[in-house]
Specification:
The protein is an all-alpha fold. It has one domain (4-88). The protein contains five helices and no strands. Helix 1 (4-12) packs across helix 3. The protein is globular and about 35 Å long.
């Protein structure tokens, strides 16, 4: 079940990257995204783990969820890059 913080996080996102399928199908993963969104290192590490099959038995994500994960990853990377430019600029 998504946590209240997760629902607030989803509402704060642009509609183009709102993870509705992720929220429905994998609320636990959405909760982790919300909890680590402000920590680029932690979130990047978590995303990498989601795409890595180190057990050999993962089925993978449904196309709609995978699409949302990629969109969130790219959106977050863009935000983190902009923040880094502001901090160093």
């Amino acid at each position: 079940m998504p946590l209240p913080r997760t629902l607030n996080w989803v509402e704060s996102l642009p509609s183009s990257v709102k993870p509705t399928a992720l929220l429905r199908q994998y609320p636990r993963i959405a909760n982790v995204f919300a909890a680590t969104w402000e920590d680029p290192v932690a979130l990047s590490s978590y995303i990498a783990c989601l795409f890595l099959d180190d057990r050999g038995d993962r089925k993978g994500f449904a196309p709609d969820v995978l699409s949302e994960l990629v969109a969130l990853r790219d959106y977050h990377a863009k935000l983190a890059g902009l923040s880094l430019e502001k901090m160093t600029g």
